[in-house]
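Dig into what follows:
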Amino acid sequence: MTAPAYTSPARGPGGYLPPAPIQRRWRDAVRIWWREIDKVLLLLIALLMAFGTIAVAAASPASADQLSTSKVTLDEFMFFKRHIIFQLMGLSLMIGLSFLSRDSARRLGILVGAVMLALLFVVPFIGEEKNGARRWINVGMSLQPSEFLKPGFAIICAWILSWRLRDPGLPVLWYVSGLTGLIAGLLMLQPNLGEAILFGGIWLVLVLLAGMPWQRLAALGGIGVGGLVLAYLFYDNARHRIDGFLGGGTAFDQVDLAQRTITAGGWTGTGLWLGMRKMNLPEAHTDYIFSVIGEEFGLLTCAVVVLLYGALVLRALLRLVGEDNLFALLAAAGLITQFGGQAFINILVNLKLFPSKGMTLPLISYGGSSTLAVCFTLGLLLAITRRNPFLAREGGGLRELIERKDTPA
């Protein structure tokens, strides 16, 4: 009986076995993700989302009552139930995006930004009108292109500004400034002055971090101030909001109602579902949910919410201190500026310290496309700030950018 013949596997040139491709299992991918993700940032996001669930539950009866008619009575927890669905969708989107590499996050951000910019051109013609503004497109749900354009804008601007590493002579400042001006003009057509100001804030942070000289900043700042003056003189939406804010408003203005609501609960609040002022507050579940928090949970709880937002922004910035990749630094800074800027503008409006802007409170307010857009933003931020803890950083990161001398942009 002969022994069975065994054939050796085919060998490559030189008699060596060709390298076999290594296929990582999904468990390995999860382990790598968990090792590289910023767990503190993830925890702060989860805390704000959890608090948002409670806040929408508190505000839902007030909004359902205001939107009910003699023919249709809305379920008082309709917005709460929908919010849970959108939060689960947003959380899944955020976690999924956080698995992306930096290059993939950059490509996705540029693609989404380009698509949303194209949609912004058609919103004034085919968009849905709500409360005198045309900002939404119906795609089975109300989609606000400007919400998804904000993270895409931050990524695109960071990408363009990082070109100067390859060619310092490129006029990248004028590229991003022109893009910002175009977007601001399209937003003014909706009208949406608040979002235009927020885009300007993102632009300002990015060009400062990219090393724009103060002389150019002053010149562009003068142009911006001139634009605001022209907006006040010839743009009714801006003039009415500014006049209402400076004039102190009346007892029937939304901002005045919000300020009365937020102080009605005192330091500790009336308790969940026991607030009465919220029943007369328009948009209690979206733009003015911070006032509902103040009435039902108290000013001390409002202070905790502000601290959570501040901690999240500070944590993201600290993550960039040792970053040695210019695109990653600028993109993450732009994304956290967008998130933090929107949060604090909303809070200031509720405190009657800023004109009404129609912005939601990220991660807390009820919203369909706005919730998904915020989670999209944070998913990109988590992906870009992922870091292998075993790799040493060579650059000085954010500290070096802040301390270096100005160079032409």
Summary: The CA atoms of residues 232 and 240 lie 8 Å apart. Residues 405-409 have pLDDT under 50 and may be disordered. The radius of gyration is 25 Å. The beta strands are 128-130, 133-138, 142-143.
